[in-house]
Amino acid sequence: MKKPLSSRHPGIYRCSVFLRRLRRRLKWYFGREHYALKSGEKTLPGTVINHQSLLMRKLEGTDQTLQRNKIDSLRKACKSMNGVLIRPGETFSFWKLVGHPAESRGFPPGLQLSFGKLVSVSGGGLCQLSNLLHWMILHTPLTVTERHRHDLDPFPDYRRTVPFGSGATVFYNYLDFMFRNDTENVFQLRTWLDDTYLQGEIRVERELLFCRTIREKNHRFVRIREEVYRENELWRIITDSETSEEISEELLLINQMKVQYDTSAIPGIEVIELNSDS
HSE of 94 in the Cβ direction (CA atoms, 13 Å)? Predict the structure, then answer.
């Protein structure tokens, strides 16, 4: 992937980041959004979904200290949003709650994917939390209003439990993950860590009439010219909570990402040869 001009010239890059962060802060303070900022004194009674994500992954050639640092950053970020209520009309903003992930605020250096390469930055690894949040929100009637993703598939699957391409990347503060409550119900987010997993759940004040699940379709690896790409589609299936009758399905995401690892070295991966017009 070709890097933008700002990433190749440090001065231009710093100026670009400063302006984008300033624009976001102005939007926070002068925009019309009502942000979810208050935690509930009690846990809401209904559970919509819970999910967990493995904390330590197998990443060849990386410093394990940086992965352990990631856990410290995740623990701090989880505390900032654990129990937050998203009332009707309110918007959840990842960075509005977490704040600047600076080392001076207790966010040590961790791994972050930048233009297809792993780099060490303060608070690196927080995308694991935004990934988990996005996956859970897809199972609710909440409306995703901002979500970003990588254009590359950098690592082979390791104990993956969710479909490829279902994540959401974040970078303070202009690449945010945000969703809005357009319903008349109250939702609550809970996030925490145990010894092995990052944990999360979405709770609700009143039980939902419909259940939402995510189904992956047309997953495949293809070769176009000399490059291998990974493709799939993610569909949301809506069913009646009482009868389990399927009501509808909705296409949410179409993914095509360039693969950066050697697929021939991984058992079970078949690459389909396509010409450039397919």
Answer: 28
